[in-house]
């Protein structure tokens, strides 16, 4: 291990002042916490998520088979013996292969010392061996129901990730080097960062900054594609974008983003804005900007989102452009709403939507992936109780759930960077959007969780009734385009593939690279990730992928060729606010600018 260069020692007076400020703020936080507990009483510590029950059941079954448990322990001992032999040979100067290596893409151990320094290599491999055997042990226990097994697997991985040596000062070489180099200033700065995050929280959770919130402004350097708000109601604003071409396709394009997050994921900055790119292709683009609800929206239902979202938007678009026929895109939960709307429109003989595109959208919820660990009757009932008290689900609670699915990348990497290395988070538009949380109305979210995730009724003919009308999405006969991503942990592509098979119309299914967001927000100019196409819709997703053709670059170009067939002839470009609807305000509008929480919660 080479000796680091020690920087100039900090000024004692400045350091003393910093410590005094931190001490004062720490005392204030403790006093505030005690006052809250005295006023509201200490919280009851139950097992609302059923975690303790799941692990108790798993341990009972594991210990009931002592022979199997002994075999597991013997394998662990064998690996540690191999590690000791490997380490001794390395000390003696022999070249050896590691007993175990991090998984591809694991960025926790990227610093050179994890490989080159004997001690840290030993710590790393010792941790990886323990993690592997612990995970394999709980995974080998038979006799558990599926939900319990998933819960044990998920929370075991959370435990393993939390105890990584990269998360601690003395076992992280990069942090230790920085501590020596800076004379401990990184730890002082890190403690200050921690106090700031505690002060900005609600007293219950630490909300770790993922990015610098002062680096971005919605309508300033994010969501800047020119346009106008041409309509609003209590649930949404409708934005029409200014044309970027002299001629446009006759048929307008309506985009339905999820209301779990804000719409500007599709219009971050000029270089990665799907909205701007689609406008430049000659589409008259409209997008729904959902309200960020509060307690007054508690009774808003899924029906309301359909009636006053896409259906009212279709009425508005006809007034704005004179066109009745529209192409529609739904992203994530917006795609789920689009599927339900298509079922409703089929039942009511409404044919205004001529083609539909689904971005990473769940329609068949039989296999929802790791989110299922949070979705059983007990947990949903507990969540409903909280929502009934407030009228909504807090945005940061939803963010916590999604972040836990990728804890090393979305939680622990920021803990190390902000608190141990004492660095400020890097300005990153995608992470700014990720931390710009939105609430969920109580009635709507309860309906969504129960009818989609728990009961999976959207796929069943007549399973759902919306606005008094039983719906059947299999009656939908229009052309459909599905794009999913191969690493999606929120809407697993094999599940979205199952949803694509529920419709009567001709379906084109495309699989992009990367994950739920990066794989969708993948502009052609970046030339990243690639995608797979297959003109057939095989019965099984693995058969489809085996027969698919892989292409470089972005699937956006493939979609552009597909949607052009359904967009109509070219007509003169339409300026927002020049038709029968006057412009209310500039894009991106006021609804999207309401920022409830500048930091994502851990």
Descriptive report:
This protein is α/β, with parallel strands linked by helices and 602 residues long. The protein has 2 domains: 48-183, no CATH class; 227-374 and 437-593, Rossmann fold (3-Layer(aba) Sandwich), CATH 3.40.50.1820. The protein is built from 19 helices and 17 strands. It has helices at residues 12-40, 51-63, 66-91, 113-116, 118-139, 146-162, 173-182, 185-200, 274-280, 302-321, 333-347, 377-390, 395-404, 407-420, 429-435, 442-454, 493-500, 541-547, 556-564, and strands at residues 227-232, 236-241, 247-249, 253-256, 285-290, 326-331, 353-359, 392-393, 440-441, 464-466, 469-471, 480-485, 507-512, 531-534, 549-551, 570-572, 585-586. The strands form 4 sheets. Strands 15-14-13-12-7-6-4-5-2-1-17 form an 11-stranded mixed β-sheet, sandwiched between helices. Strands 3-16 form a two-stranded antiparallel sheet. It has a two-stranded antiparallel ribbon with strand order 8-9. Strand 6 (326-331), helix 11 and strand 7 form a beta-alpha-beta unit. Helix 2 packs across helix 6 and helix 5 (118-139) packs antiparallel against helix 6.
